[in-house]
Amino acid sequence: DTAVSQTPKYLVTQMGNDKSIKCEQNLGHDTMYWYKQDSKKFLKIMFSYNNKELIINETVPNRFSPKSPDKAHLNLHINSLELGDSAVYFCASSQDVSTEAFFGQGTRLTVV
Amino acid sequence: GDSVTQMEGPVTLSEEAFLTINCTYTATGYPSLFWYVQYPGEGLQLLLKATKADDKGSNKGFEATYRKETTSFHLEKGSVQVSDSAVYFCALIRAGGTSYGKLTFGQGTILTVHP
Predict the structure, then answer these.
(1) CA–CA separation, A80 vs A83, rounded Å?
(2) Cβ of A61: how many Cβ atoms within 10 Å?
(3) Please, which pLDDT band fits residue A94 given cuts at 50, 70 and 90?
(4) Which of A5-19, A43-57, A76-90, B52-66 has the lowest mean pLDDT?
(5) Please, is A95 exposed, middle or buried when counting C-beta atoms within 10 Å of its C-beta (0-12, 13-18, 19+)?
(6) Cα–Cα dist B20/B102, whole Å
(7) CB contact under 8 A, A33 and B93
(8) Spatial CA neighbour of B38 closest among B49, B47, B48, B25
(9) What is the DSSP letter of B97?
(10) Which terminal Cβ of chain B has fewer Cβ within 10 Å, N or C?
(11) Within 10 A of B68 (CB to CB), how many other CB atoms are there?
């Protein structure tokens, strides 16, 4: 059983399209995250939710909108995709806001 | 704000060599410190952690000691294997302050081990 699973693993799409990435965790954790990893492997937090409440919203364009329907799910919707959005997006979860995070396998988004 | 600085990579070693990857941090208070490893094409896996000063985290032959006086958390392994080739990330998290709930990563260090 995968602890943090995200779908799809690969996503190739055209500029201007809207796409979603889904994430689910079966660890019973309270906190979930979205991270973006660029081509140089640098990881930057985008959003953090604790008990379905948004607690961190870094400087991310409005085109990115997270949604947490319940504590086990955190989805990421992206509108009007741009070339610069190409990256690997990682979902993660942690027991609470001060403990280690467990990561999904990542979604490699390629915008053409 | 909080920050983590790792030694520049890439690091290339022969099998059975000694590994050190330096990590220093800037954060107020008492953060928890972590090392994560990312194998090619995979997500990040927690390698080890330390939650207070002088704690030593260890796993799979890797170890790191939380040194508050030097704000460091260097990763070491006595004898690396080809299977250790990966990207290694140092990270910290604080329970409070403006960085509440944010796991902050270093830039990653690529390790390649040759037979």
Answers:
(1) 10
(2) 12
(3) very high
(4) A43-57
(5) middle
(6) 26
(7) no
(8) B47
(9) S
(10) C
(11) 13
Quick one: pLDDT at residue B97? 59
The model's confidence at residue B98, banded by pLDDT at 50, 70 and 90, is low
**CA–CA separation, B79 vs B84, rounded Å?**
10
Is residue B94 predicted with pLDDT exceeding 90?
no
The CA distance from B5 to B71, in Å, is 11
Under DSSP, the state recorded for B83 is G
Establish if B102 touches chain A: CB-CB under 8 angstroms. Answer: yes
Q: From the CA of B108, how many Å to the nearest CA of chain A?
A: 7
Distance CA A58, CA B104 (A): 12
Distance of alpha carbon B68 from its chain centroid, rounded?
15
Distance from CA of B68 to the nearest CA of A (A): 18
Q: A-chain residues within 8 Å CB-CB of B100? A: 55-56, 97
Contacting residues of B for A33, CB less than 8 Å apart: 103
B110 with A41: Cβ contact below 8 A: yes
